[in-house]
Amino acid sequence: MSPVFTAGFYLTTVLIGLIGNMWVICSIARSRRQKGLLSRNSPSDRLRAYISVLAVIDLTVLMALLVRSLYLSLPHFMLDSSSCRAMFVLEHSVKLASLTVLACISIERYLTIRKPFCTEVRKRFVRLTPIIALFFASSGITTLLIQLPSVYVSTDSLNCVVSFRNRLAPRLASVFSSCFFLIGLSAISLNYFQIIRHVKRKFSKRKARVVATRQRESLISQPRYMSQMTSAIVRVGVFHFVAWLPFCLLRLWPSSTLHSELSAHVRLFHNFTDFSALRWVIFIANWLTYANAAGDWIFYAAMNKELRNLIRFATERRKRSTMTHVASPSNTHRSFKQQVKNRPFKKSIFADSKIMRFKKSKILP
Question: Which CDD domains does the record match to this protein (predicted)?
């Protein structure tokens, strides 16, 4: 694997994400409503706002990958400590910001579908979510800034390295920053898991009510909207879990060399001289985070209309009362026959009463 091939692979990822995220930004800009940001009260408006912010952040993540591609296409281009530190802060900050926005979207969907609190508490939680997310991302970026003195350029000036050199503060900051990434991924996974669990429990309760009416259990199947919504949420959750889990686990691995290659190296595979299995794992784990930024627009924009309609349909179904009991065919048939028998009788009674009123009007002066 050569640096030129890796640069081309990175550029392909950048191109896919660039086209998709630019399309998202332009589409939302054309379809935006004449409202302020604070007046967006509906879940679809809030989701649209989160998606637009996510598209901008993902573009920044891809720009960091573009810088990596430029360095790979120029294998003899020298680096310095300032450029290494700038790339370290930029790359990890936008990655953490992207993960934070994804967590906000998962929380928004959880509140929309699950409705865990009363209306007033839920509204307050919705308003506090961006503030908590901003504080969370700011705290994570602070831990990255503490690590800056430990980021250096290598002796040959061709790569960046992280060396704590018995410094306690940068080492602790590195652990805390890894925990921030893991907390964001855990929030996303937990919210989507709770949504799927809630949908399945609702169907189980409905199935139990139908079975209680002495109907055949084999005739009961999961509604189409419910299966489609579950499949869409599973796809999103699995995509983020696969894209971020290797990166989060490797950051927590107690190895300074592994942490340095994952966090700071611009030219991977030890300047393309060592293609061991561990370095392939580092390369794939690092690329998956960029693939997440390049593929978010597919799940949150290209497929968003379908998922939003499914969520709205599920919300409307939840507002309805419990499923009504279906009458048996024999009772329906008997009631229909009774209506047929009574219809001419009622008509004759009505006609007789009309004739009697006419006769009385003739008799009475």
Answer: 7tm_classA_rhodopsin-like
Domain of residue 117, residue span? 3-326
Total tally of structural domains belonging to the chain: 2
CA pseudo-torsion sign 337, 339, 340, 342: positive
Global confidence as pTM: 0.77
Q: Are 77 and 147 in the same domain?
A: yes
339 and 321 in a single domain? The answer is no
Distance CA 50, CA 86 (A): 27
**φ, ψ of residue 163 in degrees (nearest 5):** -140, 115
Domain identity same for 363 and 242: no
* C-alpha span between 97 and 53 (Å, rounded): 10
Per-residue pLDDT reduced to its tens digit, 295-332? 998 888 777 665 455 445 555 655 554 444 444 445 55
One domain for residues 319 and 347: no
**For residues 269 and 279, what is the distance between their CA atoms, to the nearest angstrom?**
6
**Same-domain pairing of 335 and 206:** no
Q: What are phi and psi of 160, to 5 degrees?
A: -110, 145
Summarize pLDDT for 83-127 with one digit per residue, the tens.
Answer: 899 999 999 999 999 999 999 999 988 988 888 878 788 888 888
Buried b (16+ CB within 10 A) or exposed e, 274-284: eeeeebeebbe
Checking DSSP bridges between strand 160-162 and strand 151-153, what pairing results, if any?
antiparallel
Spatial distance between the Cα atoms of 245 and 181, rounded to a whole number of angstroms: 9
Distance separating the N- and C-terminal Cα atoms of the chain: 114
In terms of DSSP H, where are the helices of the chain? 3-31, 43-73, 81-114, 119-146, 168-212, 224-252, 256-263, 268-272, 277-297, 304-319, 329-363
Question: Do 288 and 362 belong to one domain?
Answer: no
